[in-house]
Specification:
41% helix, Alpha-Beta Plaits, alpha/beta, seven-stranded mixed sheet, four-stranded antiparallel sheet
Length: 286
């Protein structure tokens, strides 16, 4: 008998009742129930065997559906803090790549970004290398990126609404730049934002970052500090990220979510969402 009941969440834009029922039946999950427009919850009467876990992974990936096994009694009210990465998580772009595009240096900068996100390159070193390539760029390029290219990830508004309604503190922490995080903090009514500040002199980027770089350790420290301010353990934090520099903060979270993440991040997170929007985070608690 399963002394710790669990649930299986199957979701994604391609999810439908027929496919979900087939997957559930093959892995021994019961009572598929629609909990959102493209999300279903199933009961797991007993722990999945390794063979069933492998089958679940194979079937879900073939159907392009996200699957998550979680405690049946997991509730959003159990959490007090949401900490999010920005680039390719809350928003669809990597801001520094788009800024570099203004310099005709997109490919060079994007290649360094990709190395860093895969964990193949120290983040601080990679950021300094990338920012150095932006030297001389007019500050107005930042405004053009924000106004013309920055888009919120699908489902971001729904997720944030649910988190705020549940009383969670919302924190945006990024290895990107304050130019973007501060504007998003204001527009989305987030509680806190923390990122790197680009040095600008006479309206031009100098190719340098002011102060300490927001790297993996700084992100982790943000989760610890924000939890302490709320008087709760870090296990009361939900952390969402996609790159290797998010692993440290995800490691102290009560629930870590790899969103469209690199393989190294998916392997270590509690949850991996590859097809759902950010509203898929809310379905985990239904």
């Amino acid at each position: 008998m399963n002394t710790h009941p669990t649930k299986l969440i199957l979701q994604g834009p391609d999810a439908n009742e027929h496919t979900v029922s087939l997957i559930a039946a093959q892995v021994g999950a019961e009572n598929p129930t629609m909990i959102a427009s493209t999300a279903w919850r199933c009961d797991l009467p007993s722990p999945l065997s390794n063979a069933s876990k492998d089958l679940l992974k194979k079937l879900s990936e073939a159907a392009k559906i996200d699957y998550t096994v979680l405690p049946a009694d997991l509730r959003l009210k159990d959490f007090k803090l949401l900490v999010m990465d920005m680039d390719s998580t809350l928003i669809t772009i990597e801001c520094i790549d788009e800024i570099a595009d203004m310099q005709g240096l997109r490919s060079e900068v994007a290649a360094i970004t990709e190395e860093a996100m895969r964990g193949e390159l120290d983040f601080s070193e990679s950021l300094q290398r990338r920012v150095a390539l932006l030297k001389g760029l007019d500050e107005s390029a930042l405004a053009r990126v924000f106004e013309q290219r920055l888009e919120l990830t699908l489902g971001a508004h729904s997720m944030l609404h649910a988190m705020k309604k549940a009383g969670l503190r919302t924190v945006l922490v990024s290895g990107g730049f304050t130019y973007f995080t501060e504007r998003l903090e204001h527009e989305l009514e987030l509680d806190v934002s923390h990122a790197n500040r680009l040095e600008v002199i006479d309206g031009k980027l100098t190719g340098r970052v002011l102060g300490n770089i927001v790297d993996a350790q700084a992100k982790k420290s943000t989760v610890i500090e924000q939890s302490a301010e709320l008087g709760v353990p870090t296990s009361a934090a939900i952390v969402i990220g996609d790159g290797a520099n998010d692993l440290a903060m995800m490691s102290v979270a009560g629930l870590s979510i790899a969103f469209r993440a690199k393989p190294v991040v998916q392997a270590k997170a509690h949850v991996a969402l590859n097809y759902s929007g950010l509203d898929g985070v809310v379905s985990l608690f239904l």
